[in-house]
Amino acid sequence: MRPNIRPGRIAVHIALVLYTILAIGPIALILINAFKTRRAIFSDPLGFPDARTFTTIGFDQVFTKSDFGLYFVNSLTVTVVSLGLIILIGAMAAWALTEYRFRGNTIIALYMAIGIMVPIRLGSVSILRMMVELNLVNTLTALVLVYVAQGLPLAILILGEFIQQIPRDLRDAARCDGVSEYRIFASIILPLITPAIATVAVFTMVPIWNDLWFPLILAPGDGKQTVTLGVQQFIGQYVTDWNAVLASLTLAIAPILVLYLLFSRYLVRGLTAGAVK
Amino acid sequence: MADVSLHGIAKSYGVTEILRDIDLTIDDGEFVVFVGPSGCGKSTLLRTIAGLENASAGELRIGGKRVNEMPPAERKIAMVFQSYALYPHMSVYKNMAFGLKFAKTNKADVDRRVRRAAEILKLSALLDRKPRELSGGQRQRVAIGRAIVREPSVFLFDEPLSNLDAALRVNTRLEIAKLHRELGATMIYVTHDQVEAMTLASKIVVMNQGRIEQVGAPLELYHNPRNLFVAGFIGSPRMNLIKGQVRSVSGGSVTLAFTGAETSVDVVPGTLRAGDEVTIGVRPEHMADAGANTIALEGRIDAVERLGEASYVYMKLASGDDVIVRSPGDVEAAPGGRYTAHLPGRALHVFNAAGQSVQFGK
Amino acid sequence: MSDITASGVQPAESVSVRSRFPVHVAVFLAPALAIYTLFSIYPLIDTIRLSFYTGDESGARHFAGLANFYTLLTDPAWSGHFWNALRNNLVFFAVHMVVQNAIGLGLAMLLSLPRLTGGSVYRTLLFLPTMLSVVIIGFIWQLMLNPLWGIAEKILSAVGLGSFFGPWLGQETTALITISLISVWQFVGIPMMLIYAALLNIPDDLLDAAIVDGAGPFSVFWFVRLPLILPTLGVVSILTFVANFNAFDLIYAIKGALAGPNFSTDILGTFFYRTFFGYQLQVGSPTMGATVATAMLIIILLGVLIYLFGVQRRLQRHTF
């Protein structure tokens, strides 16, 4: 402890608690009011639901008037498939770029890095045109392809740095044993990069799950909506039904909330580790 | 210039006691080295003197003034950190001038002091460089320069040589000693390396587990260690320790039995009784030569280290005790062979079962 | 950047050791290169190409040179909206730079205090809004600020600021700032985390040295910590810039594609969307959409280049 710069710890905690309330208060309010009757939402918005005010009518509305379950499955499918492909394909490329010296190595690495700074969104006009030609509009495949292209650059950067830290001897030992390059990748590198997956997940999974733009442009109908788009469309339609609006928001928040609280340790670590490099 | 005195200094974090009941007086102009194994509290003690840690109890005086409540900058101290702690974004000049900015020193004075320090440390050509453009030894000198410009009464060094390679370490050690002579300031120096302690200190403070084990001039500690810890810590290779027993006592003289032999030693009267377990300590360089009063101890050679001017013979005595003998450089010895160590009548250290010297103060 | 020149040299010595472009390297790289090129780089280039064409009613396209850009910047039907969106976008970005980075820095400073009890709990909770969808956040704040529900007014009244409350999202003068602040509220976790990590990276010895040198808490911050986290602030700034000039979801969720009231919350992202898909009676135009996208691309690239060559070079990264 540095006694001479030690500030009033109580003041620090007051500041942090106040800001924490500001940060999670609105979210908490939505969750609390989703389980209350319309009358209670307005008369006592800050109160917890009790026996008199508790209701799940909003949730009933959401489930009868929309395909929320389907949206959820869509989001899950798109996110998981995209993340899986990003990690596999990204690891392969990161491995090739960090392990082998070949003509064009640096240029390819720079080429891949363009995508970190330039948002793929700006190519939407052409992406939509391509998807129309490929007959992929209103399919989850279109979303997966775009998200993989979007997530690859950063994933390659992060995985590349991670692969670099794997001791060289490990691969050279395998080479001395006559193991093929493919097997080295599959049975040595892939298992060793599992810790980096958390980091890659923070940077790729969350933006994919939360995205509105590409679902809106590439898959806005035909029951291919993701949760984000589904909620947006639902609320647009039932904007005056407070119970339904709050319930739909709660349904969108809840899975992320649970996952986040379960894995926040890894996510936060990934984020700070990413910054240290 | 100032003296430093500590009375009953203690430091604890919760229930963990880092320092207990430290009493120490450091005279003006002394070069004091805190030495001890890692975790013994020596760095914490230094940081407490600096004001970077608060003492939980006791009183700390610098130049006769109580400084417990004073921030570091007002204590007239300067500190050289193990990692050098140079500000990476500032030039060498700015690194050295940084502290003076807060002391409200005028520009001309700052410039004069920085240039003088740079001259002393041969840094004049490097003043515009950033720390990352310097070698390890140069960084180390900048760190010392930063201390010098503050013109402190007390210099504090926290293991300043541990990040340097062996050759540079010897050089810098000599430079620090020279600096001490030139500046005449009080210096407190922390190290875990007993060679640094022996070569630099006018007074060594041996610490262990948050306590001071012994304070004294280097040779005093070498020749009269107060207890087993100091005996084992000071000197390289370490003092040989052999188990023994008191056979008989007659006034200040006791007869000890050990590894099949007997010898008489003078001790402080009344400290030992017949039958007491004791540890006999003898330095490796005292065991090579046969003489009038020596006792020959036979053993098998485990290893021989040849340094050129001397050879260290590692051997196991019949009793099972391991001893090291500093023998002549060209001694004929090989692992597996037999060797004879010679236990001298004098230069024996005797410690009681509690590890305390029974000769101390005699 | 210097790597480019180096790459011309490197292969010379490694070619003799390994084959020029081994098959397995191609296999490892092919999937990533294919997907990335096809669905990221090609659309971007095609979009730029498209911005030089116009389409007529029959759907045929003609090369038009810079005519679209000329229209965008000077035609009264377009330029007003474009400049308005650009101006709003700059305001949006400025609010982020000032408020988001200031709060993020402040929180990071508090969180990096040594031995702070409950630090990880604060970190987790403060970062929570960042994890949620922008759309969800937009709706949450729309409800919070809804005068009908009146919850924001009630809370403000509780601390004596009731009279200050207004329908902020509905007023032309306040809507853009309000939306910017909502976005700041959501994303403050990112600068907070990055700066927090950077602060932890500064060795304790350095801060101790500054204290021994006589620096007070403010001086330690101003002369030691701040200069050392400047590179991180640079990274945060460029990330914010790219994200802001590419933003769309929040305004679309709260205000719809028309970015009302009276386009006062229109930024480049919503302008691009309207241009491309059309709105009300206006028919969407892929070529004009591509033109707007290209303009956005140029703005973002300009920002990135200014950062890379103007800012980043001056921000020496420090290794300790």
TrEMBL record, chain A:
The ABC transmembrane type-1 domain, residue ranges: 72-263
Domain of life of the organism encoding this protein: Bacteria
Keywords: Cell inner membrane, Cell membrane, Membrane, Transmembrane, Transmembrane helix, Transport
Record note on quaternary structure: The complex is composed of two ATP-binding proteins (UgpC), two transmembrane proteins (UgpA and UgpE) and a solute-binding protein (UgpB).
Protein encoded by which gene: ugpE
Family: Belongs to the binding-protein-dependent transport system permease family.
CDD domains on file: TM_PBP2
UniProt function note: Part of the ABC transporter complex UgpBAEC involved in sn-glycerol-3-phosphate (G3P) import. Probably responsible for the translocation of the substrate across the membrane.
One Pfam family matching this protein: BPD_transp_1
Cited InterPro entries: MetI-like, MetI-like_sf
Main location: membrane
Membrane topology: Multi-pass membrane protein
Location(s) in or outside the cell: Cell inner membrane; Cell membrane
Entry's transmembrane regions: 12-35, 68-96, 108-128, 140-163, 184-209, 244-263
Protein name per UniProt: sn-glycerol-3-phosphate transport system permease protein UgpE
TrEMBL record, chain B:
Keyword Nucleotide-binding attached: yes
Entry annotated with the keyword Nucleotide-binding: yes
Keywords attached to this entry: ATP-binding, Cell inner membrane, Cell membrane, Membrane, Nucleotide-binding, Transport
Gene coding for it: ugpC
NCBIfam families: PRK11650.1 (NF008653)
Record-given protein name: Sn-glycerol-3-phosphate ABC transporter ATP-binding protein UgpC
Protein family according to the UniProt entry: Belongs to the ABC transporter superfamily.
GO-annotated molecular function: ATP binding
PROSITE patterns per record: ABC_TRANSPORTER_1, ABC_TRANSPORTER_2
Domain of life assignment: Bacteria
InterPro entries hit by this protein: AAA+_ATPase (IPR003593), ABC_transporter-like_ATP-bd (IPR003439), ABC_transporter-like_CS (IPR017871), ABC_transpr_MalK-like (IPR015855), ABC_transpr_MalK/UgpC-like (IPR047641), Mo/tungstate-bd_C_term_dom (IPR008995), NA-bd_OB-fold (IPR012340), OB_MalK-like (IPR040582)
Source organism per UniProt: Microvirga terricola
Residue ranges of every copy of the ABC transporter domain listed in the record: 4-234
Automatic annotation (TrEMBL), chain C:
Compartments where located: Cell membrane
Keywords: Cell membrane, Membrane, Transmembrane, Transmembrane helix, Transport
Tagged with keyword Transcription regulation: no
Classification via Gene3D superfamilies: MetI-like
Record flagged with keyword Transport: yes
CDD domains referenced in this protein's UniProt entry, alphabetically: TM_PBP2 (cd06261)
Membrane spanning stretches: 21-45, 90-113, 125-145, 151-169, 176-200, 220-245, 257-276, 288-310
Main subcellular location of this protein, as a coarse class: membrane
Topology in membrane: Multi-pass membrane protein
Segments forming domain ABC transmembrane type-1: 86-309
A Pfam family hit: BPD_transp_1
Source species, domain of life: Bacteria
Similarity annotation: Belongs to the binding-protein-dependent transport system permease family.
The protein's name: Sugar ABC transporter permease
Source organism of the structure: Microvirga terricola
